[in-house]
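Researcher: Before we compare anything, I want clean individual predictions. No alignment, no superposition, just each chain on its own. First chain goes here; please echo the sequence and then give the C-alpha cells.
Model: Echoing the first chain and its structure:
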Amino acid sequence: MPQDNHHIFADGELSRSEDTLRIDTLDGETKYLPVESIGTLYLHGQIDFNTRTLGLLNEHGTVVHVFGWKDYYKGSYLPKRQHKSGNTVVEQVRAYDDQKRRMGIARKIIQASIHNMRTNLKYYHTRQYHFDTAIRTLEEQREQANEINDIQKLRGVEATARKAYYRCFDEILREPFELTRREYNPPSNETNALVSFLNAMVYTTCVSAIRNTALDPTIGYVHEPGDRRFTLSLDIADIFKPILADRVLFRVINRQQVTTADFERELDGCLLNEDGRLTVLEAYEETLDETVEHPRLKRKVSYKTLVQTDVYSLKKHLLTGEPYRPTERWW
C-alpha cells in the first residue's frame, strides 16, 4: 500500500483500535485510518493520544509532526529508525568537526539555495517583470560564497541574497498581498503568514526525508546544532524553500486560490484560518507529487523524491567522498 502524508485538522482523540488508528472528534464523528497507508502524519488540531497509539506508530515507522495554536509548528515524534548506522553518524560528526569538510558542504547548500531563488526570479523576469538588479545580486552572492571560509560569513551571504530575493515578492504577488519585509512570531501580514506556514511544511518534509536515512537530523552544517530544531533539516529546507514553498505561495495568491478572507488577525499578528490552511496544504501536497525528468537518474521523479535524493546524496558524500549534489532547479 502506498504511503502518503495525512493531515488531521479535527480536535479530538487519536487512539489505537487493534492495528488501526481511530480518530474520535469533538463533533462526535469516528474515523478509522489504516496506519500502513501513512508515511507521515500531521496533527493540526488539538489531539490527545496515549502510549498505545505511539506504540502503533512506532511499529510502522510513522513520523508525526505536531502543530499547535493556529498551526505553529511545535515539534515532531520520530519513531525508532529502520536504518541505523553508527558509522554514518560518526562520519557526519567528523565532517562537522573538520572545518574544510564542513565549509565544503555548507557552501554547496548555500549556493544551491541561491541558485533556486535566482531561478524563480529569472522565470518571472522573462515575462513581465524586471529583476535585473536582484538577479545580479544573487549571482554575486553565489560567487562570493566560493571565497569565504567562515560559517558565519557564509550565512551572511545567504541572508543578503534572500533579502534581495524577498524584495521582489511585492511585484510578483497579486494585490493586495505584499511582503515589504520578512516578519514572524507572529507574522505581521497575510504574505508573511503564508511564508511561515509553507516554510514549516518544507522543514517537516525534510525531517521525514532525513528520518528515512541513518543521518542524524540534529547535526547540520550551515546551522549550528542546538536543542530546539533539527539543524540538518534547516539546512536541506533552505535548498527547497524556493522550489516548494515559494512556488506554492506565488501560485495560490496569483490564481486567487487564497484571498485575504482566508486569514484572521489576533494578538497583533496575522494567521491562516482553517479554510486557508486546507487550501494551501492541498496545493503543497499536489506540488510534492508533481514529477520532473531527472537528468542524472534518467527517469521522472516527484518533488518529494527530490528531497529524499538530496539527503541520500549527502549521506553518500559523507561515507564515500562522492560529490554532494544538492538540488539546483534545472527545469
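Researcher: Okay. Second chain, same rules.
Model: Second chain and its structure:
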Amino acid sequence: MGFEAFFNEHPLFHHAELVEYLKNQGNYNQNTLKATLQYHIAKQHLGRIRRGYYLVTSRYAPGIQIENDHLLIAGYMAPDAILSYHTAMEFHALAYSVSATVYFNSAEKIGQLICEYGQYQQISHPTGLQPDKLFLETKLHDRLGMDIHVTSIERTLVDCLQRPELAGGWEEIWRSFESINYLDIPRLIDYALQLENATTVAKLGFFLEQHQRQFSVPEDALEQLASHRPKSRHYMDKNYQGPIKNMKRWNLIVPVNIIDKLWEEPNNDSI
C-alpha cells in the first residue's frame, strides 16, 4: 500500500494526510515523499490548489474530473470550509445568475485565490456566530463520494441579506429566493438571532413581510423579529444613492427600487 493507493482513495488531500497515511503504513520517508510528489506534479497527475493542498487529475484517474468541479475543490479548501453566499445559492439551484467566483467560509486566512482550477474567495465565518455554532444550519452533501459542507437554504438567505455584495446584489437575492415556495421560518429566525446583528434581523423581517403570503409567515414571527430590530434607524444599503423610504416597523431605511421591485418593470426598448 503506497502512494497510488492513497491517490485512489483521496482525490483531494492535504500534505499532512498523506504523511499520516504513509506513517501508518510504515512507509514514510521525507525525501521519498518529496521526490514522489514532484514526479507526479511534473507528470500532471497531481495539481496544486494552494500550499499543501492537492488534487488528483483526470490524467492520472480518467474516471474523475475533479479539476472541473469548483464546488468540490472549494469544499476541501480548508478543514472548516463551508460553501456559502452566491455559491450556496448556485448549489441549491436558486441563483438567478452565475458567478465566476466560488465563495466559502473559513477561519483560515486564504483571501482571494486564483489558480488554474478556478477563482475562489474565502470569507470569515459570520461575525457574531459563536465558535461552537460555526456549522449551524449547514448540511453535508456527497459529491463524487466526498462530503462537503454547504449552508442550508435558510442560512444562505440570512447570510446573503447580511452580505449582499457576496450574493450578487439585492435584485439577485430577491429573484433567487422568490423562486422557491417554502422556507422554514423558525429555523430562519433562530439562525438570524444567533448572529446578534439587529440590522440583519431587520432585513430578514422586511424580506419576510414582503413575502408573507408566499412563505406563509405568521404574524407572530414578524413580531418576534421586530422586537429585535435596531433601536435607531439603520440603512439597508449605505451605498445606495437613489430614493429611499423608512420602513418604521423595522427601523430600516430601504431603497425604493427594492420595495417596488423596479427591476420587474419592462424595458422601454422592448415595448
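Researcher: What stands out in the second chain?
Model: The CA atoms of residues 44 and 61 lie 11 Å apart. Additionally, The first strand starts at residue 12 and ends at 14.
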